[in-house]
Amino acid sequence: xxxxxxxxxxxxxxxxxxxxxxxxxxxxxxxxxxxxxxxxxxxxxxxxxxxxxxxxxxxxxxxxxxxxxxxxxxxxxxxxxxxxxxxxxxxxxxxxxxxxxxxxxxxxxxxxxxxxxxxxxxxxxxxxxxxxxxxxxxxxxxxxxxxxxxxxxxxxxxxxxxxxxxxxxxxxxxxxxxxxxxxxxxxxxxxxxxxxxxxxxxxxxxxxxxxxxxxxxxxxxxxxxxxxxxxxxxxxxxxxxxxxxxxxxxxxxxxxxxxxxxxxxxxxxxxxxxxxxxxxxxxxxxxxxxxxxxxxxxxxxxxxxxxxxxxxxxxxxxxxxxxxxxxxxxxxxxxxxxxxxxxxxxxxxxxxxxxxxxxxxxxxxxxxxxxxxxxxxxxxxxxxxxxxxxxxxxxxxxxxxxxxxxxxxxxxxxxxxxxxxxxxxxxxxxxxxxxxxxxxxxxxxxxxxxxxxxxxxxxxxxxxxxxxxxxxxxxxxxxxxxxxxxxxxxxxxxxxxxxxxxxxxxxxxxxxxxx
Length: 515
What we know:
Blueprint: H1 9-13, E1 23-25, H2 26-37, H3 49-66, E2 72-77, E3 83-85, E4 92-99, E5 105-107, E6 109-110, E7 135-136, E8 149-151, E9 159-164, E10 173-177, E11 180-185, E12 188-190, E13 193-195, E14 198-206, E15 210-220, E16 232-239, E17 242-244, E18 254-256, E19 291-294, E20 300-307, E21 320-329, E22 343-356, H4 368-375, E23 411-415, E24 420-423, E25 431-437, E26 448-450, H5 454-467, H6 476-494, H7 499-508
Parallel strand pairs: 6-23, 8-9, 17-18
Antiparallel strand pairs: 1-26, 2-25, 3-24, 4-5, 4-25, 7-22, 9-14, 10-11, 11-22, 12-13, 14-21, 15-20, 15-22, 16-19, 16-21, 23-24
């Protein structure tokens, strides 16, 4: 049966499988090898298809490296970073070049005179630095995202919130506006006592490897109205206790969001434990509970320094902490029902910055070698005028130049540590083409072999199988020679030498060609 049976020319010319008749899929090669080489009375009496597939893939890899044609290429416009990311299926390159306005490729030459080493971070005294860069441990620390604040103990919001009272007053609210977390407090008459709710927001952070942090926030509170309400208060602190929503009291491992005693306003005993400084288990460098109280009516920034060296990690090696924000307004004298009578507290720009002590050496973001290489103007940039009388004649002064440096195209080197190709500065903004080799095993579609190398595949598979079996050792020398011969034949076929093309090349070399 013909190989084209069942496929019309219409299907081919209007399809996307153009030129693929020159290839045979790896699956077909495995099946055909099984038919020709495996079975009773044949060279290989018995073998699993999975074993054939393994040796076939290894053969395809080896042939891809130095026998089969490399058809993979990638083109980008080189960004100001002067770096090109290596393709996902990259094994090695065959050519790197840039393209001019006429579409002509100009080869770039690899330089071995520089590299991009791991740059060790050092302190001012040049000792090795094992600390990481200062980072803010909080997410949505400046309250720029409204979705980063949400009610309850679970969910995607980084800041969890809750109202603590009999129920949230209809006039109250807790929202994000103008990059601040804003609390609006009203009041109610509860058993002849006028009370208001406490509002709370908290976020979990991991301080593993951190010995000290700087903790700051900016907040403002509601002003006091004599005869109506007291001054507001915002408190923010850090604790190792875990917030829970069930009943109970403060324990060694958690504090509880509870309602205040209905007979008392919030903030007076026996009120909610959140107003107690005892829940803040972390200490400042002055050995005081790590919290900040804000009672100024204008935006004020306060900072604390915390020493965490004595805080131990848990059994999993984690050192979790909770940042707690509470908002209260005490001593309401009347019930507030109008929007104008609500007390507004707000807080923003909560910052927790610390240096982590790393177990391994920390790294500078950029090595000196790479920074100098990409910032230097190559000497060839000064010699790109081919009409300049001083460029080409030079009266013998170019004798002894290294050809890889005697060119104006530019240079590159491959940073295998970071998986990038770095280019000299004169290539910035140009279209760069990378021709490269893969192992032809990236996807099922590319697992195919040119028909010129099909027999070489069979010999490679047979030799690999026989050399790894006991019964086939006497055949190994023979198939080793056959494999070598077929691979050599495949290279000659795939070189695609044409007599007319060769003739033209030799004519250009002033050779006498007979016809």
